[in-house]
Design brief:
Layout lengths: L1 E10 L9 E11 L3 E6 L5 H7 L8 E6 L2 E2 L4 H7 E4 L12 H8 L7 H14 L15 H14 L4 E5 L7 H13 L3 E5 L3 H5 L3 E6 L2 E6 L1 H13 L6
Parallel strand pairs: 3-8, 3-9, 6-7, 7-8
Antiparallel strand pairs: 1-2, 1-4, 4-5, 9-10
Helix pairs in contact: 3-4, 3-5
Bound molecules: adenosine-5'-triphosphate.
Length: 237
Amino acid sequence: MIRFNNAGLSVPADDPAQAPRTVLAPCTLELNERRIAVIGANGSGKSTLLRMLNGLVTPSTGAVEVHGFDTVRQAKSVRRRVGFLFTDPLSQLVMPIVTEDVELSLKALHKDRAKRSASALRALAALGLEHLAHRSIYDISGGERQLVALCSVLAAGQDILVADEPTTLLDLANNELLKKTLGALDQQVIYATHDLDFAAAADRALLVAGGKIVFDGPAPEAVDTYRRLVRHGSPAA
Ligand SMILES: Nc1ncnc2c1ncn2[C@@H]1O[C@H](COP(=O)(O)OP(=O)(O)OP(=O)(O)O)[C@@H](O)[C@H]1O
């Protein structure tokens, strides 16, 4: 259960004489569906909303709770439950070698090094990435890195996965692989995307425009609403 209690973010304006700028207007939400998409224009506030889910962004007003844990005061408990897949995989791949990064995610699950290593190789093989296991994360392609980042975050086994534009670097086949992988997960998945077919497949979608959630409901309707806003030249879309 994820709950936004009047949570929002305002930041000081560049000109101190001006009123603070709203990045995300305060919102109250319960997010329970298995697949929730977040859509909207560049700079509309999608990543800010997602980052509030695991305490990467601290709301300037209100609070966000995950399974009853406050994302700021109880950030450690929240991060044990929420995995975060960044748009740029290099923001999260911290070890130099692919298999070492997956092993790091498994550290809390397996204290034994040999078991951890075998488990990391199995996790890579499950996504068809075993051939990358001993490569440097800097020598593999952007799309390969994105899949390795997915593998690392899944290996940690948290019960909620938040993914910020997870398909951006992927070719058609890997795009399909990622969607199929996410689709088959038991975990709740909350994802921001500009791929409107991917968004339409969710159980629920939030449409963000100009820092406000302007639609919250069935995903196909959210996508239609977004297309309409763009067609009518809405400044926030
Ligand atoms: N801490 C901050 N201070 C100032 N401005 C911020 C801050 N965080 C976000 N912004 C601005 O707020 C807006 C929303 O940012 P956000 O990253 O949430 O957008 P987004 O919808 O994810 O965009 P994109 O689709 O391009 O990834 C942007 O204009 C961004 O520059």
